[in-house]
Amino acid sequence: MYLDGGLEPVNKFILNNLTESIEIASKSVGLKDYKTVLQEKLQAKGEVHIEYSIIRETGPDHDKHFTAEVKCNGKVLATGEGHSKKTAEMEAARIAMQKN
Fold this sequence. Notes:
Distance between the termini: 52 Å
Number of domains: 1
CATH architecture: 2-Layer Sandwich
Helix content: 40-55%
Radius of gyration: 16 Å
CATH topology: Double Stranded RNA Binding Domain
CATH class: Alpha Beta
Structural class: alpha+beta
Number of strands: 3
Largest sheet: 3 strands, antiparallel
Strand content: 25-35%
């Protein structure tokens, strides 16, 4: 049973909210994600405390945009942005790895 408006609202939701996550996931099939690789890299130097935080959330409910930061032992390593919290955290980890 379709709701009024057919599939167009569903397609729009998927394109607005999931395209970025699907793209990241498809590129890293069989590979470790950026958060895992960053954690392994930082822990190779000894015990560390890694923390991800959402520091900004903008946009309407149907088109949110998140900014995340990653810290190691209280020091901000990088920030990242995305249309989901997970994507923003992954981007922050990716940028942190590029810096180090």
